[in-house]
Design brief:
Elements (H helix, E strand, L loop, with lengths): L3 H4 L1 H28 L3 H43 L3 H53 L2
Helix pairs in contact: 2-3, 3-4
Protein name: II family cellulose-binding protein
Organism: Desulfoluna spongiiphila
Keywords: Membrane, Transmembrane, Transmembrane helix
């Protein structure tokens, strides 16, 4: 292993951080939008989303934390290679890869949960659509 091997991960990890940050910002914006909505029907949907949103925030925190530690270990691997501590560098790089994979697995789980959130929204829309359709038939 040479110095360029762990250096190859730097752009990938940086892009991963960008993606994770974007997911967090979108989630924060969604929470703010849900908080600002009015009406009892909307509140019911919001309450159904709360556990989902809390879980997603926690997962994003884990994704980012694992990614940070992967980045740190990758940088340490480069440092250890620089000072000719090859075995320590390889172990550090190996753990870096493991943390990166764990971060991606957590990300995959968070994506699965986010699709459940979309299903809740769709169920809510379908319920409102049925109610609006029934109300329209009664007025004819």
């Amino acid at each position: 292993m040479n110095l360029t091997t762990p250096a190859l991960l730097f752009p990938a990890i940086s892009l991963l951080f960008l993606a994770y940050t974007n997911r967090f910002l979108v989630l924060a914006q969604l929470i703010r939008q849900l908080h600002d909505r009015e009406g009892d029907q909307v509140r019911d949907m919001v309450y159904r989303q709360i556990n989902n949103l809390k879980k997603r925030i926690a997962l994003i925190r884990w994704m980012q934390g694992l990614g940070v530690f992967a980045f740190i270990l990758c940088a340490l691997a480069m440092f250890f290679l620089f000072i000719k501590m090859d075995l320590v560098a390889e172990v550090s790089f190996g753990f870096s890869l493991l943390l990166l994979v764990l971060s991606l697995v957590v990300s995959l789980y968070e994506i699965a949960i986010s699709t459940r959130a979309i299903q809740i929204e769709l169920e809510d829309l379908a319920t409102h659509h049925r109610k609006d359709g029934e109300a329209g038939k009664g007025s004819d």
